[in-house]
Amino acid sequence: MKKSLFFLSILLPFICSAQVVFEARVDSMVLLIGQQRELTLDVTCGASQKLQMPDYRPQQPLAEDVEIVELLGTDTTFIDDGKRMQVLQRYAITAWDSTIVLLPPFEVKVDGKPYQSKQLALKVFTVDVDTVHVDQFFPPKDIQRNPFSWDDWKPVFWFVGINQLLALVLLWLYSHWRQNKPLIQIIRRKRKLPAHQVAMNEIERIKSERKWAEEDSKEYYTQLTDTLRNYIRERYGFNAMEMTSSEIIERLMQEQDETALAELRQLFQTADLVKFAKYTTMINENDANLVSAIDFINQTKIEIDPNLPEEEIIIPEEVKQIKARSLTVKIMMGVIVTVAFVAICYAAYLAIDLIR
Q1: For burial by CB atoms within 10 Å, which of 101, 113, 124, 218 has the most?
Q2: Per the structure, how many domains does the chain have?
Q3: CB-based contacts of 179: which residues, under 8 Å, 6+ apart?
Q4: Residue 230 belongs to a domain
Q5: SS3 for 56?
Q6: Is residue 130 included in any domain, yes or no?
Q7: Distances in whole angstroms, Cα of residue 269 to Cα of each of 207, 232, 233, 277, 293
Q8: CA–CA separation, 39 vs 68, rounded Å?
Q9: Which residues of 112-124 are buried (b: 16+ CB within 10 A; e: fewer)?
Q10: Are 316 and 247 in contact (CB under 8 A)?
C-alpha cells in the first residue's frame, strides 16, 4: 500500500500536466436576430503539448443561420508554475432566424488527439413589431453631414500652405536661374568720395603716366578734359559729357565770373585744337593747362560733411558671388520639388481620408 501511494505521488504531477480540459461557452444563450454574442473556446493542457485550435473565418457558418462575425483575439496564460497553459480564443457570432439553435461540438487537437466540447444551445428572438399600427413606420433617414471640425482639417491646410510657400520659392529660384542672376549679392558700405577728390586722384594718375612727354598730347588732353567734364557734372549738376567746350563755358558763366573761367576756357580751346586740328603743344604748355585744371577744381570744390551716411556698393560678380546657374541652385530646386510633391500627396491622402 505504501509503495502504491509512493508511485502515485510521483506520477500524479505528470498525469495532471498531461490532462486536457476543453470547454466552449457563450456569454449569453439568448439574443435577438442580428445581435452579436461572444463565443469562447477555453483549452487547458500541458505547456509542452502541441495545441491546434479551430480555424474559423468571418462569415463562416457554425450552424443553420448562425455564423462567425469576427475573431476577437487569442490569449495564452501559463499556470502551475509554467507546467500548464490555458488558451482562450474568442469569436463574435450572430444568428439570423428566430428559433432555438444547437451548435455542434467544437473540436481541438492536442498532440494530434482530438478533443470535443459539449453542445451549446442558442435561443434567438425576433424583433417585436407593432401589429396594431402597421401603417406607422419610419422611412430611411437621410445622409447626415458631420459638422466641420478645424482640428480634423488643420493638417491638410498646413500641408497645402507649406506647398504653396515651396512653390513660390521654387518660382523665385527658377526665375533667377533663367536670368542668370546672383542669388546673394555681397554689399559693402563705403563712403562716397567728393567730386573734387575723385578729380584730383584722376589728375594724379594722368601726371604719373606723362602722356604729353611721349608725344601723345591727344590722349593726354582727352583724359584731362574728361576728368574736368565729370567733375563739372558732379559739382554743378548738368551733363557736361554731352556738351561742347563753349557750351560748358557758357553754362559755367552762370555760376562763376568770366575772369575765373579764363584759364579753363584756354584749356578747353587747346584741347579742341589738339584733338580736332592736330595742334602740337609744348611740354610747358601742357604743364600750365594741368595747373589750370587743378586751380579750377580747388576754387570750385565743395567739402563734404564727414557725418553723411555711407552708401552701399554691390561687389562685382568676380568677387565670389553665388550665381544662379550653379549646381547648388539646381540641387535646391530638386529638393523643393520632391518635398512639395510629398507634401501635396500627403495632404491629398489626409483629405480623402476625412471625406470618407
Answers
A1: 124
A2: 3
A3: 324
A4: yes
A5: coil
A6: no
A7: 20, 17, 19, 11, 13
A8: 9
A9: eeebebeebebeb
A10: no
Q: Is 206 helix (H, G, I), strand (E, B) or coil?
A: helix
Whose cell is 590722349? That residue is 219
Cell of 302: 565743395
Q: In the chain, how long is the greatest CA-to-CA distance?
A: 156
Residue 337: name the closest of 174, 158, 170 by CA.
Answer: 170
CB neighbourhood size of 189 (10 A): 9
Range 324-344 burial, b when 16+ CB lie within 10 A, else e? beeeebeebeeebeeebeebb
Question: Please, what is the angle between helix 195-209 and helix 217-236, to 10°?
Answer: 170
Cβ neighbours of residue 126 closer than 8 Å, sequence gap 6 or more: 32, 33, 98
Task: Compute the residue count for the chain.
Answer: 356
Q: Are 174 and 333 in contact (CB under 8 A)?
A: yes
As given in the structure block, the three cell numbers for residue 177 are: 536661374
C-alpha cell at 194: 567728393
Domain membership of residue 45 as a residue range: 21-125
How confident is the chain (356 residues) per 10-residue block, as mean pLDDT? Answer: 54 56 92 91 92 89 89 90 91 90 91 92 82 69 74 82 86 77 60 80 82 67 88 86 85 73 84 81 79 85 63 47 61 85 84 76
- Same domain for 281 and 201: yes
Give the span between the Cα atoms of 224 and 289, in whole angstroms. Answer: 9
- Kindly state whether residue 312 falls inside one of the protein's structural domains: no
pLDDT of residue 319: 41
Q: Do 220 and 240 reside in the same domain of the chain?
A: yes
User: Which of these, 163, 160, 183, 165, lies nearest to 173 by C-alpha position?
Assistant: 183
Per-residue b or e along 19-35, where b marks 16 or more CB atoms closer than 10 Å to that residue's CB: ebebebebeeeebeeee
